[in-house]
């Protein structure tokens, strides 16, 4: 391994050679290496990556040495990416000092979590301070323009030191998804107001819990400083609330940031009162050059933020219908409770020419229905938004609204549209979407949307399909008419009742009119099963879609799906899904009408044949029976499916999700259903292949069914699958082990401890034991918990990141579990959730003490989520917990959930006081729902935690 001079000198102090001799590589060796490297062109990305790892650091240093000595082509490293840097501060200092042209020549620096923690952070701060010192000596000495510290877990105080060290040359600063708080924003505001960042163009503070104080501190700096060239300001998820938005609006009125082009205020708890302040600022001309306005995930019209009957549309009307936005190109109102009245307000703005350059209008899940959609369709029909490229109206639209909207498209009033997303599925009695679908089919057929790149149409309900064809068939044929040469993604959700709709779609896909299509998602609620389905299968598997790379199929398990698989496997048909290794996902659901058992089985037999033949080697996801109806297949079909998964010809080296729900298997009793699971697992264990990709295996009990299908007979077979390495890439296991018994649990835990299971990251046992069984024989539950504890202590699961255990958990077993986790080996564990614990009085008393003994920063340094549900902790337990965490620092929790734990006002106040003391500085979310905290205390407690999202 090549080593830097620093490494060589430090590791050979006792050798006969002197340090200088070791540090200087043999000249002949240098010449030989240089002659080889002279014919290569090492990139900035490669050098950054080499310098980030211990094994390759010496190579990076050697490349820099050759460049500085001009043995190979010398060029300044303008862009450094240290996002995966994993070494110490000395290595970082040496690397930056060895750069050709020096660190001052670097224009862009990206850092990862390791760089933004001590002691490495100090090396970075010193390097930045050196740049700042050079600037003081000579104007323009630093070339650093972009600093990206996103997702680095940067804390408040380190951030302050770093910000004070930044050179004035910075133009783009990304501090998103960190742990910044008020003091960091005070520092940033001070630097802006003091002209230390005069060149700032882009500032991203998204996903930091700044709260009203933090946003106000930033706003103060923006208002009191010089005019800035700032073009992009992102504050998504900053929790500004009314006070923060008011402060920001006042800063905008100061008109020091009139060059803003992008403003992201999404997810900031903006209600009408706050929106009014922002509308006033916009009305005073504070944002004349704004091109992108993002207001998503705010209750813009709800006066109390939650009650849909208490509304105020005046601020929204002022903002959209009364204010001119001459340069606005994107308006994002996703999930904003805009509703039909708000949709009419938006339409007024469009019709009134307030958005002449609008390209993107996003009203996804904004509750715009009825009159709002009609008004939008009429406004577009007037041709006032000819530049519109993206229209997302994923809401429950139907009837006149959908017809009006689609008619404007059919008339060619929006020829520039590239992305069109419409949810026209409706369960309203008598509602129809036929006219809307026919209009859209006409627009496709007449090439009125020639630039369309993504089309999403969900019309599963409310769509009829008369014999001989109809809107579904017309839409399918319109797709292949030749007017969609740019289409890259097609998502269709449809319900058809005869073959014509399937034939129409098959004809459209085979017509060679979709040369650019890369993604195809089809969800079909189809009851037939003849030639149309087979033709569609041939179309999907043919070579008529040359760019296809992703196929997602959601289908009902019936003869129609079997015919689809048969079409994909048609003899002589080109196996394009296999040849091009197209990624495939399949979600198989139960039939919505009663069908014979044989037809249920034939669907799974068809899928097994498809897999076994190797026709879908890039199968990524298999979800079976995730609906209340269930597939209800027999043991023979289940065994055939299990065999196909590990068949040597299947070559499923990409399967990442396998969900086997309770409703997959047929039977009048749970024991009969278990026979199906046992047969499936036997089939898997018997194959000679293996699933090697990181796999999530889900055998949990789902809400639609009374109990889990995994039991004492099938549990040993599951263990055999693990032990034989049939799921070598297992990364997630979710299982309902309530019925497996002690022997079954022992088999599973021993298998999880074997060498063939080494990559597991997430483990869910829900529940670990049946409640009646635990009540009848308490020691059984303790034994099963002890077995799991032994598996955790085996060393095979030290990389575990998420553990979810549902009880009932008793005192002794809970202690064993927590003790195993606190061994010091689980330093990657991020989430711990315990459900239904402390059911006995002894555990109620001991649980808080266990948490403060085992769940602490020293033992679990990466734990960010702790969730305790359905326990009897009560106020006394909260006192014990907070006192213990005062003596021993708690983990760096971001989310703390103590729901249904019998906490009253007193306990809630104790916990809030503890959090306010600063002992949990990273906390973002506190959930105390389903407790005994009365309404009168909700607001007072929430107000005392301005930086924490609280639920009581």
CATH architecture of the domain at 529-542 and 557-571 and 582-760: Alpha-Beta Horseshoe
Q: Spans of 5+ residues with little confidence (pLDDT < 50)?
A: 7-25
Helix and strand content put the structural class at alpha/beta
Could you name the CATH class of the domain at 529-542 and 557-571 and 582-760? Alpha Beta
Number of helices: 34
| CATH overall fold name of the domain at 529-542 and 557-571 and 582-760 | Leucine-rich repeat, LRR (right-handed beta-alpha superhelix)
Instruction: Name the CATH superfamily classification of the domain at 529-542 and 557-571 and 582-760.
Output: Ribonuclease Inhibitor
Rounded average pLDDT:
86
Tell me the distance between the termini.
Answer: 58 Å
C-alpha Rg, in Å? 31 Å
- Cα shape: globular
Q: What is the strand content?
A: 5-15%
How much helix, percentage-wise, in residues?
25-40%
Largest sheet: 28 strands, parallel
Number of strands: 28
Pfam families: LRR_6
Keywords: GTPase activation, Leucine-rich repeat, Repeat
InterPro entries: Leu-rich_rpt, LRR_dom_sf, RanGap
Region (Disordered): 1-22
Task: Produce the secondary structure layout.
Elements: H1 5-11, H2 19-23, H3 27-37, H4 44-50, H5 57-68, E1 79-82, H6 89-97, E2 108-111, H7 120-137, E3 146-148, H8 156-164, E4 172-174, H9 182-193, E5 202-204, H10 211-224, E6 232-234, H11 241-253, E7 262-264, H12 272-283, E8 292-294, H13 314-321, E9 330-332, H14 339-351, E10 360-362, H15 371-381, E11 390-393, H16 399-410, E12 419-423, H17 434-445, E13 454-459, H18 471-479, E14 489-496, H19 499-510, E15 519-526, H20 531-541, E16 550-556, H21 559-568, H22 576-579, E17 583-589, H23 597-612, E18 619-624, H24 635-645, E19 657-660, H25 670-686, E20 695-699, H26 714-723, E21 730-735, H27 741-752, E22 762-765, H28 771-776, H29 778-792, E23 802-809, H30 811-821, E24 831-837, H31 841-854, E25 865-869, H32 874-887, E26 895-899, H33 905-916, E27 925-927, H34 935-943, E28 949-951
């Amino acid at each position: 391994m090549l080593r830097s001079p620093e490494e060589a000198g430090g590791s050979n102090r006792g050798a006969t050679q002197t340090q200088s001799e070791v540090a200087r590589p043999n000249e002949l060796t240098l010449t030989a290496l240089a002659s080889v490297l002279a014919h290569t062109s090492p990139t900035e990305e490669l050098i950054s990556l080499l310098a980030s790892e211990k094994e390759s650091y010496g190579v990076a240093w050697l490349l820099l040495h050759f460049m500085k000595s001009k043995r190979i082509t010398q060029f300044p490293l303008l862009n450094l990416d240290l996002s995966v840097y994993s070494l110490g501060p000395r290595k970082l200092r040496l690397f930056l000092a060895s750069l050709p042209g020096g660190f001052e020549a670097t224009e862009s620096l990206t850092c990862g979590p390791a760089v933004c923690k001590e002691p490495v952070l100090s090396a970075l701060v010193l390097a930045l301070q050196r740049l700042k010192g050079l600037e003081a000596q000579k104007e323009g000495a630093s070339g650093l323009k972009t600093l990206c510290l996103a997702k680095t877990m940067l804390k408040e105080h380190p951030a302050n030191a770093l910000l004070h060290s930044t050179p004035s040359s910075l133009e783009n600063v990304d501090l998103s998804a960190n742990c910044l708080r008020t003091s960091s924003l005070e520092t940033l505001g001070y630097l802006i107001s003091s002209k230390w960042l005069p060149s700032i163009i882009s500032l991203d503070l998204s996903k930091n819990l700044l709260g009203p104080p933090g946003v106000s501190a930033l706003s103060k700096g923006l208002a009191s400083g010089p005019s800035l060239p700032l073009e992009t300001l992102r504050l998504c998820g900053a929790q500004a609330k009314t006070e923060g938005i008011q402060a920001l609006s006042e800063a905008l009125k100061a008109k020091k940031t009139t060059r803003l082009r992008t403003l992201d205020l999404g997810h900031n708890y903006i209600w009408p009162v706050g929106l009014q302040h922002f509308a006033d600022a916009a009305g005073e001309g504070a944002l004349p050059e704004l091109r992108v306005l993002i207001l998503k995930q705010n209750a813009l019209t709800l006066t109390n933020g939650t009650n849909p009957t208490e509304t105020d549309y005046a601020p929204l009307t002022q903002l959209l219908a009364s204010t001119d936005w001459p340069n606005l190109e994107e308006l994002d109102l996703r999930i904003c409770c805009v509703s039909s009245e708000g949709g009419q307000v938006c339409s007024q703005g469009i019709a009134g020419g307030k958005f002449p350059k609008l390209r993107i209008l996003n009203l996804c899940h904004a509750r715009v229905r009825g009159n709002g959609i009609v008004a939008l369709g009429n406004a577009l029909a007037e041709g006032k938004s000819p530049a519109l490229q993206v229209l997302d109206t994923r809401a429950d639209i139907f009837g006149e609204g959908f017809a009006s909207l689609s008619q404007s498209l059919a008339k060619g009033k929006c020829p520039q549209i590239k992305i069109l997303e419409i949810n026209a599925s409706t369960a309203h009695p008598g509602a129809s979407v036929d006219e809307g679908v026919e209009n859209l089919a006409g627009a496709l057929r007449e090439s009125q949307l020639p630039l369309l790149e993504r089309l999403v149409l969900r019309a599963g309900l409310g769509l009829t399909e008369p014999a001989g064809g109809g809107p579904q068939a017309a839409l399918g044929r319109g797709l292949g008419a030749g007017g969609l040469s740019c289409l890259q993604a097609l998502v269709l959700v449809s319900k058809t009742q005869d073959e014509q709709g399937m034939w129409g779609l098959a004809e459209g896909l085979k017509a060679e009119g979709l040369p650019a299509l890369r993604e195809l998602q089809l969800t079909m609620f189809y009851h037939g099963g003849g030639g149309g389905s087979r033709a569609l299968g041939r179309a999907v598997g043919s070579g008529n879609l040359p760019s296809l790379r992703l196929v997602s199929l959601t289908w009902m398990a019936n003869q129609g799906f079997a015919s689809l698989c048969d079409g994909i496997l048609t003899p002589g048909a080109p196996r394009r899904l296999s040849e091009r290794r197209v990624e495939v996902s399949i979600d198989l659901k139960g039939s919505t009408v009663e069908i014979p058992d044989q037809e249920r089985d034939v669907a799974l037999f068809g899928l097994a044949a498809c897999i076994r033949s190797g026709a879908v080697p890039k199968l990524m996801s298999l979800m079976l029976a995730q609906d209340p109806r269930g597939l209800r297949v027999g043991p023979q079909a289940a065994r055939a499916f299990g065999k196909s998964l590990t068949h040597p010809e299947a070559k499923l080296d990409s399967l990442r999700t396998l969900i086997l729900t309770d409703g997959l298997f047929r039977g009048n009793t749970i024991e009969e259903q278990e026979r199906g699971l046992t047969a499936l697992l036997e089939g898997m264990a018997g194959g000679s292949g293996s699933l090697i990709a990181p796999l999530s295996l889900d055998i949990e009990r789902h809400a639609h069914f009374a109990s889990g299908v995994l039991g004492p007979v099938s549990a040993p077979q599951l263990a055999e699958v693990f032990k034989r390495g049939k799921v070598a890439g297992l990364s997630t296991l979710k299982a309902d082990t309530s019925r497996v018994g002690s022997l079954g649990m022992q088999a599973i835990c021993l298998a999880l401890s074997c060498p063939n299971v080494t990559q597991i990251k997430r483990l869910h046992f829900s529940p670990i034991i049946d409640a009646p069984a635990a009540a009848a024989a308490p020691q059984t539950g303790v034994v099963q918990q002890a077995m799991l504890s032994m598996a955790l202590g085996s060393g095979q699961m030290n990389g575990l990141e998420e553990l979810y255990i549902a009880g009932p958990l008793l005192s002794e077993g809970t202690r064993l579990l927590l003790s195993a986790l606190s061994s010091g080996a689980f330093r990657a564990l991020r989430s711990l959730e315990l459900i239904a614990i402390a059911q006995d009085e002894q555990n109620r008393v001991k649980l808080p003490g266990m948490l403060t003994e085992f769940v602490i920063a020293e033992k679990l340094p990466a734990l960010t989520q702790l969730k305790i549900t359905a326990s009897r902790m009560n106020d006394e337990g909260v006192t014990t917990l907070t006192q213990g965490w005062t003596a021993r620092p708690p983990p760096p929790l971001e989310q703390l959930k103590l729901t249904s734990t019998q906490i009253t006002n007193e306990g809630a106040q104790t916990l809030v006081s503890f959090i306010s003391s600063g002992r949990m500085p990273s906390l973002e979310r506190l959930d105390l729902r389903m407790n005994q905290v009365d309404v009168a205390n909700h607001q007072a407690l929430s107000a005392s935690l301005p930086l924490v999202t609280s639920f009581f």
